[in-house]
Amino acid sequence: MMDDQPPPTDPAAADANRAKALAHGSLRALTLAALGVVYGDIGTSPLYAVRLSLIEFGEVSRDAILGVISLITWSLILIVTIKYVVVIMRADNRGEGGLLALTALTLRNIVASAGRRWWIMAAGLVGAALFYGDGVITPAISVLSAVEGLKVATPIFDPYVVPIALALLIGLFLMQRHGTAAVGGMFGPIMLLWFAVLALTGTANIVRYPEILLALDPWRGIALLISAPWPGFVMLGAVFLAVTGAETLYADMGHFGRTPLRAAWLYLVLPALLLNYFGQGAVLLSDATTLQNPFYNLVPSWALYPLVVLATIATIIASQAVISGAFSITRQAIQLGYLPRLQVLHTSEHEIGQVYVPKINSSLLAVIVALVVGFQTSDSLGAAYGIAVTGMMVITSGLAFIYARSIGWSPWLAGAVFGFFLLIDLTFLSANLLKIIEGGWVPIMIAGCMFAVMSTWWRGRAILAERRGLDAMPLDVFLDSIRPDHPPRVAGIAVILTRDIGQVPTVLLHALKHYKVLHERNVLMSVVTRDEPHVPDDERLEIRDLGKGFFAVSVWYGFMDEPNLLRALAQMRLQQIRFSMMETSFIIGREKLVPSRRRPLLSRWRRQMFILMSNNALDATEFFRIPPNRVVELGGQIEI
């Protein structure tokens, strides 16, 4: 299948290592942990998917109910189970999954022109940008739909739904700075309880109205679409809400491994979801007026308030997973050079994946609050939901096709498999595009802004590299000009951060110009991010002795690794270069960008955006965790 080309790290061994690290070798514990992190989004879809689907269709007849439940059932089977669990999760980038990882994996495996490679990279950036669009909708619609259960109990709560939802969401985002490590252990057991409740409440109603089992026949859904083509097509946008969260399975594969994620889905999550959806269908068959909220009508009145509380907690956990995903994809984008350096705080001493990005956190909160206040109800927000996720799924199918061809799949096999997936994805995307005016413009606008930011940063950095190369001095020419007695030397080591070891760093020339001296030993250090998630410690450093007291050091990181130059220096100490931190100075250049008077290579608005991002990016001292009292910064200007 898709892992016919063996990765450098054996997948089975990688899964075993993750199990030991994350759950003391216990598959059961790892599966339980995955419930709290991975399946919260798709696990809370029963709160709104059935209701919105029938509202969109405009009819609550027996055929409509059976058809909707059938469409939801086979969407879960075809998209989540077959596409993601069986096929897509086999395309791992050394154990890691997700759109950025798949993009890097595809680029590494293909031989293509620069233009084709650019389009593949752009597709990955669009997918990453769409994730942010999904990241603002999921918390808003999930929490709102849970709190709306209070209105089912009594209309007196109607005016308080939005304030309660806002209070919960603001509290959730304020908690992010403290990390999820303290409460993370609770997420799995709570979601286990949630899925058990989904299964039990659904089963109880299926037993009372077993006619709903007719919806297992896929023809029920097809027949509904044939009988009412336009309403059925419009309805597909709401049916798709049942599978939102499927991308999370693939994105979180690196945290848990394939085996626990597959076990959780096949043996717990999928059966619980199907039982609940069928239970809601049974309730609607018995009483069509329960369409107001079929989920909460699964239980008797005495159980309503406990179910609202449990649903609210489940939606908060689902929101937490999406927020954490936004932090994680931001860190990956920074490492890969698609976003400027931002402050990334690690909230756990044990889990590298637990990070907090303050600027992303505050931005998400501001947009989510605006959405809740603007849309007011989960039904209204449903129109804004789905476009981002379907867009990501289309891109995933396309990239997976290219990757499958690169590892030897025949054109017929790859075309048949991914053509089928792409047909389903495009159908759902088309249905969701109908919602643009009603609110679908929100995730598209957010994704468009994020794509503009990431593509501008990537292109701007490439132009800067070209400009630096035009004025740079080759390193070998510089070394040839050095004599034993000139320039004079001072004791200690200078570590000069540079992007290109083949050229003399501009900051070194500035230092020499001002101070007229060189250190006894000079380390030209370049930090490089590979297109793979992790780089082993024994591959971290590449050290070359250039002579005349100069060393070239390349420090390699994966896009999921945490750059830490002090650790890299400690590794250097064990190899060729011995030093004392008290005798070491880090020389760093701080460039200020100004608009070029020459013909610009970026449009005016993109140039202004790039200059703004560059001048406000987190400085290298903090990003690379360099002691501030050992840093010398030399400034300069560069035109762009």
Explain this structure to me?
This protein is α/β, with parallel strands linked by helices and 640 residues long. It has two domains: 34-459, Amino acid/polyamine transporter I; 472-639, no CATH class. The chain is built from 26 helices and eight strands. A six-stranded mixed beta sheet has the order 5-6-4-3-7-8, with helices on both faces. Strands 1-2 form a two-stranded antiparallel ribbon. Strand 3 (489-497), helix 23 (506-515) and strand 4 (518-529) form a beta-alpha-beta unit. The chain is elongated.
Helix content: 55-70%
User: β content, as a range?
Assistant: 5-15%
In CATH, what is the class of the largest domain?
Mainly Alpha
- Structural class given helices, strands, pairing? alpha/beta
- Quote the average pLDDT: 82
Categorize the overall geometry.
elongated
CATH topology of the largest domain: Amino acid/polyamine transporter I
Q: What is the CATH architecture term of the largest domain?
A: Up-down Bundle
Quick one: how many beta strands?
8
Radius of gyration: 27 Å
Total domains, how many? 2
Briefly summarize what is shown.
This protein has 640 residues and is an alpha/beta fold.
Features:
elongated; 640 residues; Amino acid/polyamine transporter I; 2 domains; 61% helix; disordered N terminus; two-stranded antiparallel sheet
Helix and strand arrangement:
Blueprint: H1 11-23, H2 27-37, H3 40-43, H4 49-57, H5 62-87, H6 99-109, H7 114-147, H8 149-153, H9 161-175, H10 181-208, H11 218-227, H12 229-239, H13 246-251, H14 253-256, H15 258-286, H16 304-336, E1 345-346, E2 355-356, H17 358-375, H18 378-382, H19 387-406, H20 411-433, H21 436-471, H22 475-480, E3 489-497, H23 506-515, E4 518-529, E5 541-547, E6 550-557, H24 565-573, E7 584-594, H25 604-616, H26 620-623, E8 631-639
Helix pairs in contact: 2-10, 2-15, 4-5, 4-12, 5-11, 5-15, 6-7, 6-19, 7-9, 7-16, 7-17, 7-19, 7-21, 9-17, 10-15, 10-16, 11-12, 12-20, 19-20, 21-25
